[in-house]
Amino acid sequence: MFYDTETNAHGMAHDPFKAIVAPRPIGWIGTKGRDGIRNLSPYSFFNAVGDRPKMIMFSSSGRKDSLRNVEETGVFTASFVSRTLMDRMNESSAAVAYETDEFELAGLTPAPGHIVDAPFVGEAVAALECRVTKVLTLPDMDGNDTDSHAVFGQVVGIHIAEEVIRNGRFDLAAADPIMRLGYMDYAGMGPIFELKRPSQRT
Ligand SMILES: Cc1cc2nc3c(=O)[nH]c(=O)nc-3n(C[C@H](O)[C@H](O)[C@H](O)COP(=O)(O)O)c2cc1C
Known about the structure:
Elements (H helix, E strand, L loop, with lengths): L16 H4 L6 E6 L5 E6 L2 E6 L2 E8 L3 H9 L1 E6 L5 H6 L10 H4 L4 E3 L6 E3 L4 E14 L5 E16 L4 E2 L2 E2 L1 H4 L3 E2 L5 E2 L15
Antiparallel strand pairs: 1-2, 1-5, 3-4, 4-9, 5-8, 6-7, 8-9, 10-11, 12-13
Bound molecules: flavin mononucleotide.
Flavin mononucleotide (FMN) binds next to strand 2, strand 4 and helix 2.
Pfam families: Flavin_Reduct
GO molecular function: FMN binding; oxidoreductase activity, acting on the CH-NH group of donors, NAD or NADP as acceptor
Protein name: Flavin reductase like domain-containing protein
């Protein structure tokens, strides 16, 4: 089948777009407002977008509290979502008032950043501290602003729990991430395998 995205006539109960661009990692974005109120929310429009220097991005569909906070303070954190934290991650996505601290709501420990003044999830096995480098309201193909706002951040500090460092590596199997699919679906990790680049073959 084929459908064009202008009519969006896919004929299915739900738009399959996000099920195709999947799985997506989940960035659990920790921020504080200028007033000091903490915020925590999951974003699956999230990824690493550069490594020299290390850059990550999350994108807000509409103007949400995390976006407001990064605009106010210029910093954020991204915590790693392990399967054990799945329910609390979901809890933290509730549409609640700006004044609500989702760390409290979800029963999580707000750990203070070492470098940036933004909280991360103390229970997470990894977290990135970031300084905002750009907030980009995404233009559409005609150059008009959309209501998607991409926040780019340079990673200035990285936390890793000792228990997931094995044989000198961040052991992803031990960290046990959950990933976002389409619909209301999530997935865990499948088996890990290694694939050498053509230039690395002996
Ligand atoms: C797994 C998951 C991924 C999500 N990804 C996004 C996303 O990429 N962009 C977005 O705008 N909202 C996303 N949401 C919804 C936000 O988490 C939700 O709107 C939240 O209330 C926003 O909080 P805030 O206003 O405190 O930033 C996601 C929710 C879940 C559960």
